[in-house]
Amino acid sequence: MKKRTTLNEIAYHKIKEKIMKGDFIEENYTSQNQLVEELEMSRTPIVAALQRLQNEGFVKVISNQGIAIQELSIKEINDFFDARIAIETFSIRNTIDMLKENDLATLYEMVNEQKQCCENDDFFSFVQLDADFHYYLLEVEGNSLFLQTMSNISERLFYNSTCFLKKKQNMMKFIQEHLDILEALKQKNHHLAVHELEEHIRGGKISLF
């Protein structure tokens, strides 16, 4: 029997998506009343969802003041990107010999979709595709712990990445770097693939700082 989705779960995913899309970027703040109105839900599931999001580090609930969207500290950003470099560069050394033509075609299609997002100023979809691109490379290698860790890191970095990628030149830079990674993968050049991937991730970290 399929598990029924609870109102708490619905509220959690809706609020989390709003945070990740950058809906609160301007004020970096919201309130229970505002969320009740925007989501057209009662207060109880929203309170439960906010508690869960606070435990995960996405928000801070301040008594009698509201909900502050938690931006990552410099140390947290640094730690997340260092973990990405370690995981992704290790994985790609195995992935490069496992990639098939259809895998490369899928990755090129993701980059083409990113180009469309850039033209349409669709920052949210662009960041999601960026996460999908990197996640796909890990999926080919198939380490389940790497995949779970990467998924958690991508969610925590999503808000900051959306802020950063609201500049078209930054989106174009990411697109070109993805193409450079793909060219190295296509050539099965292990050294170049690792180099391009590490420089891409390291550049993202520096840009967020």
Low-confidence parts lasting 5 or more residues at pLDDT below 50? none
- The shape, in one word, is elongated
Tell me the β content.
under 5%
Structural class: mainly alpha
Approximately how much helix is present in the residues?
over 70%
| Average pLDDT over all residues | 89
Number of helices: 9
What is the gyration radius calculated from CA atoms? 19 Å
Order of helices and strands: HEHHEEHHHHHH
Number of strands: 3
Strand order of the largest sheet: 1-3-2
Largest sheet: 3 strands, antiparallel
Distance between the termini: 47 Å
Q: Would you give an account of this structure?
A:
It contains nine helices and three strands; from the N terminus they run αβααββαααααα. The protein is mainly alpha-helical and 209 residues long. Strands 1-3-2 form a three-stranded antiparallel sheet. Strand 2 and strand 3 (66-69) form a beta hairpin. The longest helix has 22 residues, at 74-95. The model has no long low-confidence stretch (mean pLDDT 89).
